[in-house]
Design goal:
22% of the residues lie in helices and 21% in strands. The two termini are 17 Å apart. With 1108 residues, it is of the alpha+beta class. A hairpin with a 7-residue loop joins strand 20 (560-561) and strand 21. Among the domains are: 314-318 and 413-487 and 620-669, Alpha-D-Glucose-1,6-Bisphosphate, Chain A, domain 4, CATH 3.30.530; 324-405; 492-611, paz domain, CATH 2.170.260.10; 708-829, Rossmann fold (3-Layer(aba) Sandwich), CATH 3.40.50. 46% of the residues are buried. The longest helix has 19 residues, at 934-952. The strands form ten sheets. It has an eleven-stranded mixed beta sheet, with helices on both faces. Strands 7, 13, 14, 15, 16, 17 and 25 form a seven-stranded antiparallel beta sheet that branches. Pfam families: ArgoL1, ArgoL2, ArgoN, PAZ, Piwi. Residues 494-613 form the PAZ domain. Belongs to the argonaute family. GO terms for molecular function: RNA binding.
Amino acid sequence: MGKKKGKGKSQEEAASGSAPAAQQQPGGSHQPQPSQQVSPPQEPPQPTPSQGGGGKKKKKTDAVSQSKPSTGTGPPPGIPQGPPTPQHQMAPPRQQQMAPPPQQHVASTPQQQGPWGARGPQQQQQVPQQQMGYHPQQQMGYPPQQQMGYPPQQQMGYSPQHQQRGPTPQQQRGPSPQQQRGPAPQQQRGPAPQQQRGPYPQQQGGPALQQQFGPAPQQQRDPQQVPGPVSYGAEAQAVVQQPQRGPQKPEGSRPGSSGDQQEKKQPQRGTPKKDPLPTKQLAKVQISESSDTLKYRDVVPGTEGRRIKIETNHLGLSLGNIEIAYHYDVNLVPDTPKKYLRQVMELFRQQKFPKRYPAFDGRKNLYSSSPLPIDGTMSATIVYRELDGRDKEYKVEVKFANEVDMRGLRGKGQRGETPREALQVVDIVLRSAPALSLTAVGRSFFHRPEQIIELGEGMEMYNGFYQSAIRGWKPFLNVDVAHKAFPKSMNVMDALVDLFASDYRPVSREDLARGLERFQLEKFEKFIKTLKVTYEIPNAGATRRSYRVNGVGEPAAVKKFRPNDGPEVTIEKYFAEKYRVRLRYPKLPTLWVGNKERRDKMLLPLEFCTIEENQAVNRKMTENQTREMIRYAATNTTVRKDKIMRALGQARYNDNATVREFGFSVASEFEKLEARVLKPPDLGYGGNRKVSVAKGIWRGDRFVAGAVINKWTVVCADRAPRGDELGNFANMVVRHARDCGMTFTTDAEKPLQIIGNRQNDIKSFFQRSKGKYDVIFVVVPNSGPTYSHVKSAAEINTGCLTQCLKMITLSRKINQQTVMNILLKVNAKLNGLNHVLLTRPPILNRPCMIMGADVTHPSPDSQNIPSVAAVTASHEPKAFKYNICWRLQPPRVEIIEDLQAIVEEQLMFFYKSNNQMKPERIVFFRDGVSEGQFEQVIHSEIRAIRAACKKIQPDGYEPNITFLVVQKRHHTRLFPLNPRDSEDRNMNVPAGTCVDKDITHPFLQDFYLVSHASIQGVAKPTKYCTLWDDNNMSNDDVEALAYHLCHMFTRCNRSVSYPAPTYYAHLAAARAKVYIENENLDMNNLNRERQRFLIQDVIRKDLPMFFV
């Protein structure tokens, strides 16, 4: 869906069928160091006859499985001691997967172990089962915690003497032992300062009310919350290494005051000065509790990685000595067509102040570098000759509005919010150069190329460039190439021919003269609606007029009207009698133009209408048009840089009179700076094999945990395949599944069926298949609604797991690599584990929930289609498996409206999946938010996450939250200065290239990261910005976490351009769009409408990765 947005899959990233085949590396099994071992899941206990190993599935027991008490001298329970046998590598069949974990553990003890190691202090008080809605018989059936596969504690530096329940009392968030019987009066409002949140957020019950949403002033979090990597199950040891708190400070003192001598000895990076208001700590941003003002502070760039020299498409921008700009409001009467506004205002300037060159934004705003000679309101009547040759009068009024302070843009500026109005002034001034000669679309400018690039279906591609003034450590102008589809300027009849030539064999005017079928009429109206056409009757004198098309009308041979209250005639007869013109295509629809409120619609024969040139339209392109545009637009870095420099020569900023009047100047060369290439993570596969990543790609090996498929089939929902294509595909699946560690215990059920693509046939098939198969492979047409019908019938109506592939894949592209890519998805869908991170980010050392969120919007030309908000969350220690929640919300609303309820669902899922552990840390990757929405996100979505935690456990559950925005909608590109630093034929920077200074925000923790190897064209970096950080992560920590998660996308054996949780959120939103496709929705009650599309529990809960 078009986003923040309309996001589709990035062209530079791999999809199914494009990643390298996963093959076992030669040379035998690699034996990694103990600290790098990947421990595959332990074999589940063999079922007894009473447990239904091969017979009927036994009813779930009512007991809650708990961990065995640790003896303190061995690895945690469930760690395999050697290479797995084949049955170790596979998840149990669905009948076994649905069963609760084995009842071999006792109740929780201080030494209790779970999938994350020893329970930390936060986990000591369990959430009441009644409150959490948790019942033993409702367990999800995830593999026991023994299958989590963590390294033994001895290998992680774990010592038995440190195996205690948590930090020492004075380090805990809860009361000290002497306070447990009843606090003294002065202690009733909450813990003293030395009991503030330590290196791990404490979940122990009993804090006062002010702790339930955010800390009170005297309870500010310790700025140094993460001392470094912490071993699994060794939280106590890590806390012992923390310095002891100083003496208790009087209530109401602020962190950093003289009462805490110990904290004074540990100066923190970027520590803010004392502030009279208590503040919550943001990542390099603070938000005041009593005022919604953002306060910025310095950040320290990262140091990890190999340093390289690069250049970027940012040009240094000098703003001269200007301190104040003067803003004027402009009003034109009557309303002026947008394409005439600049010309009319230029005539006004020449008439009123010919020696001044203010900057006009093309709408309602005028800016000057010094006061204009205007006393009150200045007005004038301007006569302008429009394209149809008619002169039209416009009354222009200009009056002073306000002054704009420009000083905040100098250098790094002052700490504080980016002066957006000042930045807007710079943008408008610099746009004055190309605006009069080129077609402006947003911040881009286009011209019709000398060599026409046909995109098909009535569209062609224009070339152009994008420009935007940005604030880095100094002001910059970001310039990039731009491409856009424009309707071809041609007779509407020719456009009609071009529109349908791509659907069928080449057509002519005569082929369409007999009239259009219904689907053709709908397609034509969608194309022509909102376009401007020039109407002119041949040989009829001055009849040239310009109109905007509202829609289509009845054919001229059918539609009747009364001209001048005379007798009723058809449009065809009217033209024959009035203008002596015979219509050649009277059976084709007419064009409805003019005033929409007019009682009698104005209808024009389409053969007399011509589509005007240079019309920018915001429409979703077809797959064919997108493919053609990418083919022409995707170039290497050398060609792209040359195109940008040509655009700069065309704009000639420094020669423009308006730019000179303001004293601005633009550098003529790209900004050169230093970047760092981060080290990729090592990945673990089955058999304790370590796999290295090179150039963003790795060769897959046997899965860490391969799924077991007992019953499956292949069906075709398209035309009958040629020969035995279905059977050949089924054989390839079984053969290659064996290579990667999956097990198909039987061949596909025969006969392989052809169910056709009619919706009722698809529904009937899945009704018959309910509960019958572990997975169903479905061949669907290359386009059309069949895919939507399959997913809705399977996941919403019947609870069947499916894996779809297009007919073109089956008939032309089926090979080992394609099948292996399909199996990557199937294994994840069946709760398998493809690979794991061997080099783990420190934040994952304690229970941590990684979340991704995205909101996809309908295309601008869509009506009555809601936006879809989707949130994914990890629910196991390896951050490989995610589950989804989604909501419908009003179109183009970016803030997630129901985020609190979504986070509550995700917390519950995590809690049930991890032996009743709650996440101590939440890392939230938010896609699609612009800088102008940062404050709104902070005050809406971050608070919703806090509120969800409070709702789950009102007595003080407050996990550390790190909230990052992930941005792909920008035009920054990075180019290596030294060709030897490139790793591909397009001369891109290497995968892992990171920039966090110079062109980034001076007082926010943000950075650009190229995490993938581009398949074609110039790699587009992803921009990250930290809005909130309770975990106090350094730039190196955040950059490594984001980069590592880019290697955890299950669909391919290559790093992708943004983190897996964010990618999954996009896939989840796309799946929700599939469900509501072609459905009539009540836009006034979207929550009720969503209830129609609830996913079956057997899919949503038991197979949460079904959507990949």
